[in-house]
Amino acid sequence: MQNNPFSIGYLDVAAAFKRHALIALLAWQDIQQRYRRSALGPFWLTISMSVMIGAIGLVFSQVFKVPTHDFLPFIAIGIILWTFISNVILEGCSGFIVAENIIKQLPIPLFVHILRMVWRNVLILGHNIVIFPLVLIAVGKPLGLIALLSIPGFILATINLTWVALILATICARYRDMPQMVGSLIQVTFYLTPIIWMPKTISAHVSAYLLDLNPVYHLLEIMRAPLLGTMPTTTNWLVSLAMAVVGTIFSLAFYGNYRRRIAYWL
Amino acid sequence: MARIEFNNVSVDFPIYNANGRSLKNHLLKVATGGQLNTDQQGRVMVRALEGLTFTLQDGDRLGIVGHNGAGKSTLLRLLSGVYFPSSGTVKVDGEVGSLIDISLGIDHEATGRENIYIRGSLLGLKKAVINRHIDEIIEFSELGGFADMPVRTYSSGMHLRLAFAVSTIVHPEILLMDEWLSVGDEGFKEKAKLRMNDLVYKTNILIIATHSKEQLLQTCNRAIWLEHGKVRMDDDAATVAAAYFDKKP
Q1: pTM assigned to the model
Q2: Domains of chain B with CATH codes
Q3: Are A32 and B121 within 8 A, CB to CB?
């Protein structure tokens, strides 16, 4: 029982959750380290994000000829959430590689390093998300109760991102050119996903391919749509939920299968 | 009660050259149907440990001797649970603590106090435990007013004293060491020695890799001599010390 891949994976993950205090401490440490000795500290995250959103929002509302009060909130939340999604996936690739020192010295559950990275990005998201209400105020748009639905959406999306990160971290520890491949894939996904363009601007039969077959779109929608005052579709929910269940089970077995060799690969 | 059981344990290291690590090459190898395998094996295996069998019980003070590359560090990593054996079984009953690389996790931009929490948490200490010990740690490491300064402003002596003070707070049942820890100037050395002796005295099983004959004879009651990953000799410390250190030119 102790030696089948699934239970090895499960035990490691369960043990990692028990070290939540360590995870929180290390993740916060990561953020502080980046902004130590700067007067505004982590709020530089917020400022640089605002500058980017402002610039892209103003330029592209002109390009697409859509009114700013619709477009600015759309692009603001889109870019904020996309930054979260892409960073978790990209940093997932180096999840074990950057923790080599610790992995080779201390018998800490390896999943701790993945959770540390995910939690770090949640904290960064927390700093970035404050821009969104400011944008809403600026364009005079209200935030309805429906926005609360984005919380379960966020949790479900994070579960999905975490298992993807776990698998990528394992593969990238072994194959070192994998991160580059993931990097370019992420870049392509950014343009294929409605972040700087609005879904309604493309024709119906194109959207069937670009939207329904794009897993990132579903994950984005369950977080974004409620914040923009619309319900995510049932398809959005079902796809995200199915991916979370299947992905979690698969990733535990996959990770468990290689768990014991990761230290040798680093 | 602590107990360690090694049964025919071997460890193989896969060595990946730049080629072996690339997915492209891996795919190409599959595509060319293993031809590459015949003249150039993609994976080179290095056998770091071979056929280790031994049992340790409460009260055992094991010294590991051997030349560089004999497998001492690999053995310590197996014991700490970082590595898993390629074949054979390793059974470790009891909580393992390690005093190898005591500076691991120290962040130079963070203050001494923050680092005590980071390092302590990495070692598995609860926040409440660190809270209870923090004044003692700061006092022991003689940091004084520097406790709330970034570690990058520390002298190397202060740095080591801090790392030492935090790392020796834990009292594991099984203690691993790579060479005896001795830090600081004369005054601190004495203090550190007392603390180490106390730590070693309280631990159930001690395992130390060492190059020093005096240390081996002083601390250990049993020794294993590793050579090329195999046990060359496993006996009481005096016998092994005599054989190993006298053989040396």
Answers
A1: 0.86
A2: 3-94+208-247 (3.40.50.300), 112-203 (no CATH)
A3: no
